[in-house]
Amino acid sequence: MKLFTYSKAGATAESAIQEKAQKSGAFYIAGGTNLIDLMKDDVVVPDHLVDITAVNCAQIEKLAGGGVKIGALMSNSDLANDTYIRTHYPVLSRALLSGASAQLRNMATVGGNLMQRTRCSYFYDVAGDCNKRKPGSGCPAIEGYNRMHSILGASGKCITAHPSDMCVALAALDATVHLAGPGGARKVKLVDFHKLPGNTPEVETVLEPHELIVAVELPAPVTAYGKNWCYLKVRDRASYAFALVSAAACLEIEGGKIKSARLALGGVAPKPWRAADAEKLMLGKAADEKTFKAVADAVMKPAKGYEHNKFKIELGKRTIVRALKVAAAANQKEV
Amino acid sequence: MNHSISLTVNGARRDFVLDDPRVTLLDLLRERLHLTGTKKGCDRGQCGACTILVDGKRINSCLALAISHDGADILTIEGVARGDQLHPVQAAFIAHDGFQCGFCTPGQIMSAIGMMQEAQAGNDPERIRECMSGNLCRCGAYPGIVEAIKSVAGV
Fold first, then answer.
1. B3-78 CATH fold
2. Mutation test of the interface with chain B: which of A33, A103, A333, choosing the one with the most B Cβ atoms within 10 A?
3. CA-based radius of gyration for chain B
4. Within a 10 A sphere around the Cβ of B121, how many other Cβ atoms?
5. B10 by DSSP, 3-state: which?
6. Contact between chains at A101 and B43 (C-beta distance less than 8 A)
7. Model pTM greater than 0.90?
8. Does residue A124 sit at the B interface (CB-CB below 8 Å)?
9. Rounded average pLDDT over A105-119
10. CA of A52, closest CA in chain B: separation in Å?
């Protein structure tokens, strides 16, 4: 790890932003579970760390109308185990608990989860090329070992997959990210927060310089999504592994017909993949396998597999169908 | 630039001057306090051998910068027994053959103690396996580990 300097910001987001803006090559650090790991391998080499753990945004706040504002410094485990979240947004709770390990969830924050970097092994290998780490150097994953990589939304410059489970649920739940920056505060929809790689895979989010994530807001819960939901994560081992494919599904069913639906995928794209068009296909249809198979086909129609991850296209379809079936049957086990 | 921090480690207050901000809690415990029960396995947050409790919660000490934990209350494997009387989880690991080589054991035990405080698993073996998945055992002593935890969890 390269040497860096360190300072701790005070209780306000403004103090952190000011501190970071004054230092060159500075990064924010909170839980550190991803950043310290990357620093140990010299993948990310900060000159300075601004510790934001004293910034006052670790609480969850209920909003008028039933929504919630989740402080960016809240730990993944505190959020997953929050009674209101477990009751009204169970798909988020389950997504969180299916990610990482208990130790990591105790350290990792909500804001940090949004900011986590890809686990692509070529990104981590500083001896080799990577367009994300060293723009213009090339993407060895395209012709290399790409089993964990994207089948949707990738580009000729980068085919990495986004590793988060939490963000998949947040995408399905229409979350909004609250940002504070030198130019003031603003809000961005979670589905617009992460960027597809295109020609600039090194640009991963819409964050402006020194901007800080201060909260994630969820709109008022849809009652049916507290019952008809599923987070299904398919991976190489039963626990503590990144998703090959994951799906967050929520359904609102009235008289056997689907009144509203949410579907988002993980493990298949460089960002949390909300399948908004496919959701519309379900409206007014019967909540049955035929409908769900049509949805799966629609989601995977633009999919492009590479040598080692072609299987994800069929696996993705089956994951979607099963997640929707579990949601329709209100069959998800208790978190 | 030097940074001063103080920690409570196994009940005793300790003051440190850090001349390097890169020091992790794991390295501080092992190199400065010579508390070598906490193990350095992968040093990347993947194996759980370095698990300790910070303010009552289990974490991977290899990924925690000491400098950002000023004021923290730390419990390591050295602090769980009372004199010669083992912690019930320690005794259960012996009674149920919860280890072979022993390298992952301090992390397993600290993780199990943290898990029991979280009260998420009870003594359901499937839940114990899920809640302990952040601790790897290359000897494969998992059946004994689960039995040991089951015997003391929910009692």
1. Ubiquitin-like (UB roll) (3.10.20)
2. A103
3. 15
4. 22
5. coil
6. no
7. yes
8. no
9. 98
10. 9
% residues pLDDT > 70 (chain A): 99
Helix axes B142-152, B105-118, angle to 10 degrees: 40
**By the 8 A CB rule, do B73 and B54 touch?**
yes
Q: The domain at A228-328 falls in which architecture?
A: 2-Layer Sandwich (3.30)
Q: What is the pLDDT at residue B127?
A: 93
ipTM higher than threshold 0.95: yes
The alpha carbon of A15 is separated from its chain's Cα centroid by a whole number of angstroms, namely 27
Contact A33 B60 (CB under 8 A): yes
Distance between A202 CA and the closest CA of chain B, angstroms? 23
CA distance A271 to A168: 9
| Sequence-ordered list of residues with C-beta below 8 angstroms from that of A11, at least 6 positions apart, any chain | A54, A55, A56
DSSP H/E element including A273: strand A273-274
Q: Which of B66, B69, B65, B79 is closest to B12 using CA atoms?
A: B79
Q: Give dist(CA A141, CA A270) in Å, integer.
A: 13
pLDDT of residue A335: 45
SS3 B113: helix
Domain B88-152 superfamily per CATH = [2Fe-2S]-binding domain (1.10.150.120)
The CATH number corresponding to A1-54 among 3.40.630.10, 3.30.43.10, 3.40.120.10, 3.90.226.10 equals 3.30.43.10
B154: pLDDT strictly greater than 80: no
HEC sequence for A243-270? CCEEEEEEEEEECCEEEEEEEEEECCCC
